[in-house]
Automatic annotation (TrEMBL):
InterPro entries, per the entry: Acyl_CoA_acyltransferase, GNAT_dom, Ribosomal_N-acetyltransferase
Annotated SUPFAM superfamilies: Acyl-CoA N-acyltransferases (Nat) (SSF55729)
GO terms for cellular component: cytoplasm; ribosome
Name of this protein: Acetyltransferase, ribosomal protein N-acetylase
Amino acid sequence: MMRRLRDLDWPLTTARLTLRPGRSEDAVAIWPWYRLPEVQEWTTTLSPTLEAHQEHWDDELESAVVGLHRGRIVAVGKVERQDAWSQSDMRDRAAGQQAEVGWVLDPAAQGRGLGTELAAALLDLAFDGLGVRRVEAACFADNLASRRVMEKIGLRLEGVFRGESLHRSGRWLDGASYALLASEHRARILEP
């Protein structure tokens, strides 16, 4: 049986964050900063009202992780288990073998390494907690802050895809895709 995010030992602590699974009531706590234009610039879901935000948040709870700093939620992340691509006769063995990670940080908490700390913990949750063999992350190529975090935590740039992502501005932007294998993650941990 595949391990689920909610079945792991919680909370998880990093140097400055306490991580736990997202809860429905967290939507209200993150709404004041999640709705800011500088946050919405790069998020995939635009929630124009608290009610719409709550509905979207509740739909994503299975993969949601929150990061608390000094008792306040300053970051949200996701570890979404996915099936790896495979030939049809191998589908059962590819089921749940990879995960996508993502994160959003309160602008008031940016610039202190908390996003990198959260993202690194999400990698650990995917590899060590869920036991997946591959982790992916994607963003608009122009989202340089997110790309820097991906690189800092050891994700490898696998491709920049020209004009493949439709931004809510109406412009087609380049997308960037990063990934890491579990074997690469373990090797990095063992390096002196």
